[in-house]
């Protein structure tokens, strides 16, 4: 029946015949997490005051412990773990209650409320993001989403594409006839008639233009994946994802991401499935499609499901479609989190300024919010800020818009076109030149670091300048890694080997603690050139 409610209990069929709830020993539940023991792997739903908040697999997600497994509170949930709640642990398949107790966590006496600033209830989805899941919404709230699915499918048909429900939306429709309660968005997919990535990319941008002309706000995940923003009846902005795909040499490539042997007749001609009382297109062979997406166990609900994509598939899709965005979300989150902190001039910049008073151009790779760029510009030196995340330097670029000594440029060390084109542009700027790179290479793999060295070598060509590098070499207990976005330390011996591989030499190396406090982090600074 169209417009029926979204009670999660009707979504999760009784699976007693498939998976019986096992014994679960609860040793403690405290501010750290849940220390549980079970003789076998156990899927667990966690509810606060009767509302599901989170799901996990005990052995997979827990840390081995003498008494069982410790499952720590997920990071997004920790700010809310302060107060009292009636906590229930349930097997989501059988519905069996594994444990129930009133617990007090943190210091507050009030009831724990996991809600948005607007007071809307939140829960963790399979990606451990706090969102408004479908089981928290009533039918009237998701009607605009269903309307949008119909309209976007129609728009795609108008541009020559037969799109279909994909991923969690297809799973819910085919398995349960409705939206999955612990899901939070809707997914569409299509398989292009083209078989070359470039043609599929051009087609995706044509689709975006058509949707924009229809009045939708569209953002892009990658070269063939989009998010169409849909406003629900109460003002909630719900995303509708459109994933592009294509067939080539007997393999289905579908963003999101699938790369598996497949047949085109398993997709077309499309069939139909019911979603909340409405009929929508789905792939012709739904078993083959959902097996390729979720594995052969797709019929058994798993609110803690995690996609395990082979590294080869990720690398392939990064090269084809995501070269401009790989890792950008992490840096965006870091800069958003630190936006209210006063940026400081790095020790590298001060050292370069002191040693090279005649410097004409300073280039900051990974400039962030542009503190070092501003420092050199104020000294009368031309300064170029390069960064993967334009959000970081946007404010400083606006402040310096009329300063001819300052330039900011999008720069991606994982994109060879950027490495070559931007580096060649910098090489034409006045010399003497110096290049700085502070707390960037810790977040790069081997290929990215070699691209950084290649870039610096090109930028410094024709000058006696050097690359001035700083990275985390030892992670302490002082929070320095988090404050700088470095995350993990990097062995200086690894960097030295890569410098040699790039044809460079280390002129100077120093390692020092960032403070005199016990257990402080250590950084390594290197001066590198390619003039030898």
What is the third-level CATH name, the topology of the largest domain? Rossmann fold
- The overall pLDDT average reads 88
Question: What percentage of amino acids are in beta strands?
Answer: 25-35%
- Which regions have little confidence, pLDDT < 50, spanning 5+ residues? 1-21
E-strand count: 26
Number of helices in the DSSP assignment: 15
Structural class: alpha+beta
Going by CATH, the architecture of the largest domain would be 3-Layer(aba) Sandwich
Radius of gyration over all CA atoms, rounded? 26 Å
In oligomeric terms, what are we looking at?
single chain
The H-level CATH homologous superfamily of the largest domain, spelled out, is Vaccinia Virus protein VP39
The percentage helix is 25-40%
**End-to-end distance, in Å?**
76 Å
The structural domain count equals 3
Query: What is the name of the CATH class of the largest domain?
Result: Alpha Beta
The dominant shape is: globular
Q: Largest beta sheet, briefly?
A: 7 strands, mixed
Short description:
This protein has 532 residues and is of the alpha+beta class. 29% of the residues lie in helices and 28% in strands.
Descriptive overview:
- With 532 residues, the protein is α+β, with helices and mostly antiparallel strands.
- The protein folds into three domains: 8-125, Immunoglobulin-like (Sandwich); 137-308, Beta Polymerase, domain 2; 328-529, 3-Layer(aba) Sandwich (Rossmann fold).
- It has 15 helices and 26 strands.
- Strands 11, 12, 13, 14, 15, 16 and 17 form a seven-stranded mixed beta sheet that branches. Strands 22-21-20-23-24-26-25 form a seven-stranded mixed beta sheet, with helices on both faces. The protein has a four-stranded antiparallel beta sheet with strand order 1-2-6-5.
- The longest helix has 20 residues, at 139-158.
- The chain is globular, with a radius of gyration of 26 Å.
- Mean pLDDT is 88; it is low at 1-21.
